[in-house]
Specification:
- The chain has 1113 residues and is an alpha+beta fold.
- The chain has eight domains: 185 residues, no CATH class; 95 residues, Sandwich (Immunoglobulin-like); 103 residues, Immunoglobulin-like (Sandwich), CATH 2.60.40; 97 residues, Immunoglobulins (Immunoglobulin-like, Sandwich); 167 residues, no CATH class; 123 residues, Up-down Bundle (Four Helix Bundle (Hemerythrin (Met), subunit A)); 105 residues; 39 residues, no CATH class.
- It is 57% helix and 17% strand.
- The protein is built from 26 helices and 27 strands.
- Strands 21, 22, 23, 24, 25, 26 and 27 form a seven-stranded mixed sheet that branches. Strands 2, 4, 5, 8, 9 and 10 form a six-stranded mixed sheet that branches. Strands 12-11-14-18-17 form a five-stranded antiparallel sheet, with no helix packed on it.
Amino acid sequence: MKPAYEALLGRLKSARRILLWRAIERAGLAAIVGLLAIAFLALVVALLAPLYRAEYSVLRLALLGAAAVFFFTAVARVLASEAALSDAALAAGKLDGDREDELLSALELSRDDPERGAWTSGALREAAVEAAAARAGGIELGRLKRWEKRGRWLGAAGVALLLIGIASVVGGAKTPLVLQRISDPRRAPKAPIRIRVEPGTRDVEGGESVALRAYVAGSGRRPELLTRGPAGWRESNFGNADGAEGARRGERAYSLVLRNLNEDVVYRVRVADQETPTYALNVRDLPRATGYRILYEYPAYTGLKPEVSQAITGDLAAPRGTRAILEVSVNRAVAKATARFEAAGQELPGQPGERSARFSVPIRADDRYSIRLEDQRGRRSDLGPFDLRAIPDRPPTVTVLAPGPVEDVARDMTTVVLAGATDDHGVRKILLRYRVRQEPERVEVLHEEKEGARELAIRYTWSLGGYSLLPGEEVEYQLGAVDGDAIDGPQTTWSDERRLRFPSATEILASMADERDESIETLQDALKGARELQQKSDELSRDVGRSRELSWEQRQEIQKTAEGQERLREQIDKVAQKLSQDAEKLSQSRALNAELVQKIQELQQLLSQIKDQNLLRSMQRLQEAMKKISPQEMERALQNFKLSQEEAMKNLERTIEMLKQIRTEEMLEAASERAAEMERRQLAVNDSLSRAGQKDEVSKLAGSEHEIAKMADEERAALDSLTSELKPLDSETAEESSRLSQKLGPQGMQPQFQRTREKMESGEQQASQDQAKDLAQNLQELRKSVDKMREEFAAKRKNEIAKKMEQSAQDLLDIASIQEDMLGDESSSLSKRAETQKGLQESTEGATNRVAEVAKQTLFITPDIAQSLGRALSNQSNAVGRYSNQDLAGGITGSKEATIALSQAAGGLLRQKESMQGSKSSTGMQEAMEKLQSLAGQQEGLNEESMGMMPSQGEGQQGNSGRLREGMGNALGRMAAEQEAIRQGLEEATQKLGQNGGTLGKLGDVSEDMKKVEQNFRSGRLDQDTVDRQQRILSRLLDAPRSVEKRDYSRRRVSRPGVDVVRSSPGALSGDLLKSRPSLAALLARGSRDPIAPRYRATVDEYFQSILEGKAR
């Protein structure tokens, strides 16, 4: 189909270019005609009317504006024209016959993607495209260039040109002059305007109002008054004079009153482009200030350069120690100037100048002062009083942008501190003050500025790995800023106290408990709402089916139904987002449970599917039907809406049940994590006891023991809640949970905790060690019991689900067998066949319901099983109808299709059952991780063999170009086969995890690299590029398991403003650290930061303990 498609596409592109050129031609002609018409009118006006420079300027601007408008209008019309391939197909189709859409249909068929499931066959699309290509080849595309009214537009353009020519000829010698003035208005003469102003320049008294009169001859425009101010010339308009007094012949009188003049006024009058000379109204008044100029000479400690400012008052404000040079501008010359200070009781003489007075004012303390000016005639004028403010040095401010006030430590035990500090005269240092456990506070300098900076931002990567934090411990810290005040001494400001917590998996899981209950409650409300919407849609469907047209009330009810559906989507989206956040939070835990994270992620994907596929599509169809306002369309849309609701309710029920299971698993996981953490802390306390040398050191450990006792109480309460949760699910596990809870109660370890703490408080080291050792053994047994209970519960659930899946598969096989027997029975009548088929359909419905119940308990029931069951029920229903209508052939076809679908569903159930039983986790992730590690080991061995076979340096210089020595061909063939086996294993692992919603599907480029290595080996090439490619393959295989455990569930990106990057290097190691052996607490803290599964963490702790005891091999 490619040649035909290319031929069709080529013809359609040619048609599109013709259409685009036609649009350009049409828009261009219209713009040219309009512009010629405007030019004709402008020429006529310029020839007939006596115009001057101002009028020619307006005329030229009008022509330029019209040209711009016509140009952009033409561009807009071209852009809005029909220039797509589909438009070209329709236009070309109209040129040949009545089948106008044949070319468009062929174009759309050729764009269908077969892999996404096209609704037509490939042969039909190919035939349609070939026919359209043949038809397009016979169409004369040149006819598309023709368009209606083309001749009229050309005629209009000719007429406009003719009129312009006639006007030019009639204008005679004036025409070139007019054209020159239009192109350059400065060549035109100014309008002969005469302006006379009264009173012109004169002296006035302060507060007097002056009436200005302007007499204008030669223009009817209203004159404008221009007055000069600090910001330049300000415009105001004259009004008509009340009378014509003082006006000469041909003059018009205008007037304007300037009221309450207290300052000199410099003014002139303008009419059009004519202006009068500048006049002044001088106010006869006492000496007064017209402005203040202040020069601040700052002291050295501020680090500021001298600064000049203009002010409207004499108020002074500057840092203490500043000298202010104040220059007062006055309206006339003064003979003497004095500054008087109220609080100090002093007078400071000034330096009189030409209409100015200068003062040098030291700023030491807050005060008020006034200025006395005296003119030549001895008249005095007092200015002020003014404020004199000595600004003290303010302390710096510090803002911490990240981390938050209370934030968890990341997996790599580092945190990035983003902070900013400001100071009025410059920040010199940024400090970090922190406390770890009960240790003394420490202060570190993160950054230091030699000259100081008013604003300073830092980014500091703080490594917490050296503090040996245990889960549940925290670091308290503050950020500080220090300024450079040299007068009162440096000032330091500290931020609010913040905390960095090392959360345990127990805390994370416990924080999710209430959120999980809230999610279940939200989904239950959504399920209830979905049922109500389904019932309402049934009633509306019946009402609409009996109506010929939709009433207003029915449309309102349908609209309410759609709004209810939108609220339902919002509820589901809220839960889906919460699940995504929970999965991300759990994945950041050092005790990562990859299986639990995978389950939560798959539930989030299931909710997203309900929201986006089921509910959104049904809403869209319902809204489309409402727009058509057709009862038939609305009835069909409501039926589809009902089906979508049913599917959504099934998925919601499944999600709710799975959430309940996850809640139980999280409770078990939290109990296991808390038991392991209690044991780990007790081991650390025991190690500290063995190191204690004094009684007070032993007494201090009583607080740590008390914290472990509190955790034991929390564990006991959690086990009690777990007992209530497990009673309806597994009575044996519930009894075991109750037994373990009693073990932590008053009859168990609770008195033991009390005795141990009392011995520690009294400082009895040996007795405390004995008690603590027994307590550690009991906690170890508790941890093992909790882990065993959790693992046995998971195994029981898996076996029960596998048994149900096997029973459901056997039921489907039995139904399929009876279905086959019915097909082989040729003696039964059609009515008997219909009755039998109906019974099989009911049996299949029962089996489907049982499979649906199993699907609520496991994620191994895949969508293909549900689709097979749906096809079976549909074909069985179709067969019943065919048999009932005496259609034997149709009934047999439906029965056969139903038999095939039942067999496929049963096979899928059995395969998924075997996968679930053979997997160590419900998602198969652990097996994929082990497979990847095995493949990485095989790849590493193959890489070493390749490196050993590389030609030596001398051989490489002989021009072999990567060719191996003679006799190495067999070895390369074997290595190619090994590389192919590794690639196939990788593809199987990625395919398996890809079906379960994993993230290993991004290793496709590694598979391509493997194929290239295979090709090189088979062609006898082994060069440096091949070895480098093998190293990249190995690196990706080693990184893949870590990338799965560290998923990025959030796709949002956070943007922050840029900051100055400052890092401080760690200090040198202390010599004592190199001499002494590490404590057990440090080893346990180091091990707890590694991403170890909970079931293996206790083994790691035991290993660290054995190292200290000298038992490790």
